[in-house]
Design goal:
The chain is mainly β and about 170 residues long. It has a single domain (about 1-165), classed as Jelly Rolls (Sandwich). The chain contains two helices and 13 strands. It has a six-stranded antiparallel β-sheet with strand order 1-2-10-7-12-5, with no helix packed on it. The protein has a five-stranded antiparallel β-sheet with strand order 9-8-11-6-13, with no helix packed on it. About 25% of the residues are buried.
Length: about 170
């Protein structure tokens, strides 16, 4: 795996390096030693899976409030998504900026630091994502904002067709 800087401070695209032969492929998704070269004291306590039946399903923009902020590593294990992160850290030089990238099946991952919001839209039916999480989910600390908040002007590549009630009802920041 190779860490590639994004335009947002402390966020990385992680390029996976699968090895293939006649049997298929093998790929390392996580190695603490490699992570600690870029992200000091990397620690993950939970693994989550997001299964999305339909293309144009949008989930986001979500984050956990202090003191339960989370680092995330997001992998697409089936299908593809347009994945977006927004830097909400007020003291960051990239505060308020966003970054979007297509994550395709087993090709790359996105490291999302604490203090960032995260969301995605599926580009194919039957898309699955796997998340490594640095903290346990705390329902009372879940926060979010509308995917179409004009403050961030995220240019989603397709029109969202499927959103949860919660994602429809988030306010603007």
């Amino acid at each position: 795996m190779r860490f590639v800087e994004t335009p947002l401070q402390d966020a990385y695209l992680i390029e996976l390096e699968p090895r293939s032969d006649e049997r298929g492929s093998f790929c390392r998704l996580f190695c603490l030693q490699i992570f600690n070269e870029k992200i000091k004291n990397a620690s993950f306590v939970q693994i989550n899976e997001s299964v999305n039946a339909r293309k144009a399903t949008l989930r986001g923009m979500h984050y956990q409030a202090a003191p339960y902020q989370e680092d995330k590593v997001v992998y697409c294990t089936r299908g593809s998504v347009y994945d977006v992160i927004v830097d909400l850290r007020e003291n960051s030089p990239t505060y308020g900026r966003h970054f979007g990238v297509v994550l395709e099946e087993n090709s790359s991952a996105l490291y999302v630091p604490k203090g960032f919001a995260h969301g995605f839209i599926t580009l194919e039916d039957r898309t699955h994502l796997l998340y490594l999480m640095s903290d346990f989910y705390q329902p009372g600390f879940e926060r979010g904002f509308r995917f179409d908040d004009p403050k961030f002007a995220i240019n989603w590549p397709i029109e969202p067709l499927i959103l949860s009630k919660q994602d429809q009802n988030w306010g603007m920041i």
